[in-house]
């Protein structure tokens, strides 16, 4: 829900965690394989992707995340959007995989993967849907940031059709 442009998917680990930083190492390979498939499919059908996470925590403190299960937003709007952390990044990793191997010590956190693959992590200011607000602003529809009130079903269906047309994805059709 909330796909202001086509090519928007959430990728979540099968095991329940509040953030990707908490994902067990045993689940990392499958998650990254699924993510690679999603990125390739979205890029091929809609254009270059950007990725971000509003990483929550078990204490459920005020945070930007609205869902209490880890998920990475993958969206084919990288050529239109430049995400910014609220402050200087606490850490920058060469890749998302590197971050998952050595996750941030801060929680909750914000994370975005830059076009070159580097993964920037910063403190979460506790503003609901922090990155979605930036995206809506940069797409010149600032009032449409809330996924729950603006589902954009036609754009969601466009992403579903792109994946329906793709055979041989990881997990034998279960991801």
UniProtKB/TrEMBL annotation:
A motif (Histidine triad motif) lies at residues 69-73. It comes from the Bacteria. Residues 1-90 form the HIT domain. This is HIT domain-containing protein. PROSITE patterns: HIT_2. GO terms for molecular function: catalytic activity.
């Amino acid at each position: 829900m909330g796909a202001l442009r086509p090519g928007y998917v959430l990728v979540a680990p099968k095991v329940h965690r509040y953030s990707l930083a908490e994902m067990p190492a045993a689940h990392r390979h499958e998650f990254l394989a699924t993510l690679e498939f999603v990125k390739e499919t979205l890029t091929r059908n809609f254009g270059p992707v950007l990725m971000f996470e509003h990483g929550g925590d078990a204490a459920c403190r005020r945070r930007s995340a609205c869902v209490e299960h880890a998920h990475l937003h993958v969206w084919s709007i990288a050529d239109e959007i430049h995400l910014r952390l609220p402050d200087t990044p606490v850490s920058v990793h060469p890749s998302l995989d590197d971050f998952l191997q050595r996750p941030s010590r801060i929680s909750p956190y914000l994370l975005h993967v830059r076009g070159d693959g580097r993964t920037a992590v910063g403190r979460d200011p506790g503003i609901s849907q922090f990155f979605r607000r930036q995206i809506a602003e940069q797409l010149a529809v600032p009032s449409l940031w809330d996924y729950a009130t603006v589902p954009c079903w036609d754009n969601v269906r466009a992403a579903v059709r792109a994946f329906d047309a793709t055979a041989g994805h990881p997990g034998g059709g279960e991801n």
